[in-house]
Amino acid sequence: MIFSKLFKKKKWQSKKVSERLAAVAELDKADHANKSILHELAFNDGDERVRRATLEKLNDFALWWQAFKHDFSDSIKKYAERIITESLIGERDTNLDPRLKVEFIEQCNKTQLLERVVFDLNDQELTLNTIKRLNKDALNFKAITDSSLPIESKLNLLENLTDVNQLKKLTKKLDGELLTTVDNKLEQLRLDAEKPVKLEKQVRLLLAQLNALKDKSDFAVIADKQTEMESQWQLAASQFDVLADNVKAELLEKHEKITATLERIQSPLKAQWQEQQENELLQQQQQDNFKAISAELTAVESKITQSIADDSEIEQTQLSNDINAVTHKCAELQLKESSRVELLKRAESIFNRANQIPKIQQAILLAKSLLEKLQQLPIPQDLAQLNEITPELKELKKQWQQNLKDVGISLPTDIATEYAKLLKQRDGKVTEFEKQQRQTFNQIRRKIPELEVLIQEGKFNNAFGLYKKMTFWYADLNEYQQSQIARKWEVLESEIEKLQELQQSFSNPKKQELLADAKKLAETPLVDPTEQAHRVRLLRSNWLSLGHAGDEQEVALNDEFNQYCETAFMPCREYYKELEDERQTHLDAKLLIITQLETLANNLKSSEVSSWKDLESVFVKLTRLWRETGLIDREKVTEINNRYQASLKPIKQAITKHHATNEQDKLSLIKQAKDLVSQEMDLGQKSDKLKRLQAKWKSIGFAGKGTDQKLWNEFRAVNNPVFEQRDNDKKQEMSAANELFDTHMVMLSDLKHSIEETSEINDLRSIIDQAEQSLTQVKGVAKPQFEKLRRIVLSITKQADEAIALLRAKQEQQIYVDLFAAVEAIVEGKSADLSSFKSSWQSAFNMNSKEDRHHVTLLMEIIAGLESPESDKAKRNQAQMEMLTAKMQQGVEYNVQDLLETWLSAGMFTDKDIELLARIKPIFIS
Fold first, then answer.
1. What is the CA 446 to chain-centroid distance, rounded?
2. CB neighbourhood size of 540 (10 A)
3. Is residue 389 within 8 Å of 380, Cβ to Cβ?
4. Which residues are paired to 141 by β-bridges?
């Protein structure tokens, strides 16, 4: 058939893109041979559409990866990157196994791609390793604050964070264990930063203290201090690795020099100290020996007196042996000469007194008698008992001491011990009460002049009250103390008696007047209950100021007065009950405020503040409500105020701390702004950076009353000169831009009018280029002006394109006119110039494809939708069926351009072809 000759089946090697695309769609990728073909097309085809279609058909992650790395088309690389991204995060199935996924992540060096997928890899270990590999602050921050990573992974990331600013930001976003870790890390970083400075200061101070020992003269002090400081030095020296090498060397050298100097200075002092120590040791030994021998002599005395007390015979042999032993020790042991003489005399005295048994026995009997009296003497429990036993106790003490002096020897141990025990029991209380008695005596002496003044001024009620107190004090004094003030006391008693007589003479008449006032107030209460209560209290005060006459008339007056006062106070009780209810309401309101403040304080401890502005607003409202809430009971004011202040304290501290942080942040921005202003850079760039700083300023928050406005004024003072200069420059730029705009408007207007006068395509293209070029020359004009210029340029471009299309259409029409004229010339036997035609047409004139020109004409009419002569109706139908079959079975589609070449190459032209030429002319020439 004619179609098997005219059209061949398109293969995947075809030069036509459409045929290769069709082949890609038809090939079965499951077939091994087809898969090899698809791989060849995917990576070696010259058209990116074919490569992309093949990659999409294969849909394999490894192939997309290779295309991403090696394809020379940017569009395919970008598309491959998108497919890879979707595959990694699970949005597209590309047969991606976990091993290949890990391999890709580890080998991929495109940071932006990894940043996009790192949090969606669905593999926590891979995500963590990728974040560590990228090592970017923003990623670390997001991973720790806003990711699904487990807390262990977040803690792992925190270990590698050392940037203080980044850690400070994290404190505002984290809570719980993470916040604690960040706080600890910040504290550790602060300590690490301060450690070299602190260590150096500490060591230099230590060396200065060590060097100061050179001026000491006490070897013991020097040695103790040096040992202590050397221990501190060794501890500090173990941390020298944080110091600079030159500082470390300097400190070590100083220590070595100071140590050598101290050793040289201490050498003579050490010898003196050792000699002094030996002398002190000798003195101590002498004292110890003296005490030991004295104790032995006391024991010998006790044996003697005990034997006498037991009425047993004194063993003279044993006594001699004991005295001789003591004498021998006095000669052998180290003793001061005076101490040795004293001990020997005492030993001799004991030996001699041992023969005075009757005298010693009499002393023991007297001591026992004194003990019995002391036992019977009660321990004082108050000042009255003290005054009672004191004389007898003093006498017993005096007799005991005289007895010891007379006998000249120690009494038996049990008697001496019992006496000391009984005396201690009484002396403790006696001392305590005597101190109290002295205080009372001093107090009454001070009050006597005061009482005298009250009597002289006629303030008898005050005088009576003070006198009554003083009578109790006077009774507590001992005889000696009473004798000291007896004269003045008698005078005061006489004056008080006179006052009492005077009081009785006028108090009752005055009370009659007060009783009448009380009756009136009870029967006719005042409108104001507070004034009523005040009047009642005033009447009672005046009544009490009149004192007590003590007669029957006064008792009756007191009862009647009390009854009237009680009646007068009844309305006040109701008023005070209402006032109490109101104060209870105020108390409940204040307790509610305290509860809300305590809740706010607890929330501050347990969770992060999302909006400090809202928190401060709530805090201010609660404190204002507190101030506006009325009074409460006076007894509860202190307790409630203490709770209120306690609940305020943590909130105030948190707000103050937040303000301080904001203050530091704003000071940092001020410093950045100053540094930025001082730099040499483009004014616009500088303005933009300052604007970004202003945006940060707004996001920081309030820095405290007074401080915030002060900081803002300072910040504005840094910014304003730059923005003023920018505004001035903008005005100048705007003026220049307006002038430039006007110039280009005139130019574009001229270009638009010149389109109508131009008849050459190149000239029209030149107009388009000039118009488009003008847009690149108007930088700096306002956006509305630029948009207006752009619309005009688009209008010029459209108008020029339409003119070009019209000219090109005329030229194309002329080509076909010339082509068909050449065919007619050839039919007429004339020569035709074919050199101006394209090469495929020239070749077609010289070929003989032996195709049926009439059949090709029918095909062209079918494709162009033109009617064929009635005589060709059957052939036209057959041609249509063949075209449909070829399209469905072989995927072949035809176009009039290819068919025109076939029509030209169908052999020699004859007169019959003129008719066919006339039929195809309307297809190409309108």
1. 62
2. 16
3. yes
4. none
